[in-house]
Amino acid sequence: MTRIPEEERDIIEKAIYLPMVLTILNRDLELINQGSFKLKQPYINLIEKSMKTIQLELAQIKKYMKQNNLKVFELKRDEAFTMYTFLYRGYEEQHNYFNPRIRNKVQELLEFYLTHLSIQ
């Protein structure tokens, strides 16, 4: 049983997922710049705007985690699972995440940031 409240666990998980989303967006931005798109700029603008939003949110998450003595470390990884250590106010917990679950959550966040920003 976890001692970490759901709200704070969600914040810790975002600290795991958002850097992955940024990595994907960086790679996609490189591919668009190298690709043979007729109109690259709208895609570049959308990705850059999404990246700025994610970076701001990630900075807020890191600040919150520092203020509330929360930390997360990747402990080990194999083909199926990734294990993370969560440090929560003096307590240490280890959580295993199924890699396809991580991929699905990152994809969900990617879709959210891209569609959310394209509407504005």
| Biggest sheet strand line-up | 1-2-3
Question: What gross morphology would you assign?
Answer: elongated
| Overall radius of gyration | 16 Å
Q: Count of DSSP helices?
A: 3
What are the secondary-structure elements, in order, as H or E?
HHEEEH
Summing up helix and strand content along with how strands pair, one would put the structural category as alpha+beta
State the helicity in percent bands: 55-70%
Number of strands: 3
Rounded mean pLDDT is: 93
Largest sheet: 3 strands, antiparallel
Strand content range: 15-25%
Describe this structure in a few short sentences.
With about 120 residues, this protein is α+β, with helices and mostly antiparallel strands. It is built from three helices and three strands.
Description of the structure:
The chain has a 3-stranded antiparallel sheet. Strand 2 and strand 3 (91-98) form a beta hairpin. 64% of the residues lie in helices and 20% in strands. It contains 3 helices and 3 strands, in the order ααβββα. It has one domain (6-119). It is of the alpha+beta class. The radius of gyration is 16 Å and the shape is elongated.
